[in-house]
Amino acid sequence: MPEKDKRINVLFAAAEAEPFIKVGGLGDVAGALPIAIQKSGPQSVDIRLVMPFHAAIKEKQLPINRLGSFAINSGLGTSECSIYTITNDGLTVYFLDSEAINHESPVYHANPVQDGRKYAFFSVACVELVKFLNWEVDIFHANDWHTAVALYALATNYKDEQLFHKTAKIISVHNMPFNGYGAQPALTELGIVPSNDSYLPEWARLTPLPLGLVSADKIIAVSEGYAKEILTPEFGCGLDEFLKTRSERIIGIVNGIDTHIWDPVTDPYLVQNYNQDNLGAKAKNKAALQKSFDLDINPNIPLLTLISRMDNQKGIDIALRGLNRVIGQDWQAIILGTGNPQIEKMASDLAQIYPERIKTVTKFDPALSHQLYAGADIFLMPSRYEPCGISQMISMRYGTIPVARATGGLEDTITHYRGNTEEATGFLFKHKYPSAFANGLLRALNTYKNKPVWARLQQNGMNRDFSWQRSAEAYVEVYKSLLK
Ligand code: ADP
Description:
Bound molecules: adenosine-5'-diphosphate
Number of domains: 2
CATH architecture of the largest domain: 3-Layer(aba) Sandwich
Radius of gyration: 23 Å
Number of helices: 17
CATH topology of the largest domain: Rossmann fold
Oligomer: single chain
CATH superfamily of the largest domain: Glycogen Phosphorylase B
Helix content: 25-40%
Strand content: 15-25%
Structural class: alpha/beta
């Protein structure tokens, strides 16, 4: 086989992945992207996923096979790590099971030292897995801090091993602020020494994410916007100066969404399915929501929705305060989210002040989320920062126009309307203030009155390609560029 047509071997390591376990956006990516990469042609990629055998996955009693075990040596002794495997949609998945990795723990520990230990051991175990398999891995693809230490271990403790001589190292950055600080005792126990890169701040030299960044041949942010933002003090989390020394290795590849699960044409949760050519049918979903939420059943009142984790990152407080500023306009809103009790309360309080037009649901409700994406007219996404974001892509696919903050992946995936009816898909506002949000929303509410323009914006969004296939092709190009 000519070298350029060689199969590319990739180990994709992640803390969580659908359909086994999902806590946040990383679970979506790690569930969908490797499968999309495997299916992307023409160059074949043998990509395999590795993740911890979390207690919650064990409970599912999946039809797994035990492959064997290896030892993880640390200063405190040797722990055995068992390897289990399963196939998901053609993708080989490995679960690593060891006292140090799972011990009945949740996916993420609230205690950073325990969490650090779990993922430091998991990272080293991922490298040991490759040795166990005696598999010539071309690309070791880590994701976020949880698996970043594997790259550093490859560059240090394992650097003389013949098996890894051709292994290129990639880290995808889904969320910079989480860096794994607290893992230091476990790293020392595992014989990992601090980095001597003088551009790294002192605190970062034995911290998982910076160690991964320091070792990576390629750093992939989950959008082009975020790739630029992490080089600035506002988003760089103390690593921006260091990252600037790596700027030629940093690129952005925007995530996709599962276009089968999120499809208004087939979505089983909807009262009425629809596509971009019969947007009138979308109105039935709105009427159903207005009825079930005891709102005025009126097709002409714009229905706003916000579906989000209730977290400071998501800027929900900005939207809630901003809504107060446009209370003189005609609109209704349904807010769905759980998380920070203070933000939940703020959303519930607003619904109590304006019960006839604002409804708040503080739970995690996938079925309702589908109905809201379909039935609403406007989707609110006022994030303080957003590495990529998937909700805005889902909303556009459902013909629900986003009003979002111009940051990270939101700016990359939404084309702001400024009279450019041919390509615009939504409304962006710049500053993270309620007044800026209110102005953005006002522009959307005014445009909503112009039915032909509104329908065009809806169609533009629905016609966009948000599939994983598009992202997968970009990843394969990166893999090819790194083949040694
Ligand atoms: P993040 O991963 O940072 O939470 P994303 O925008 O990438 O943000 O993904 C959020 C996903 O979670 C979307 O699919 C959204 O619909 C879903 N989601 C968030 N909150 C809820 C909720 N309360 N009920 C149902 N789905 C939710």
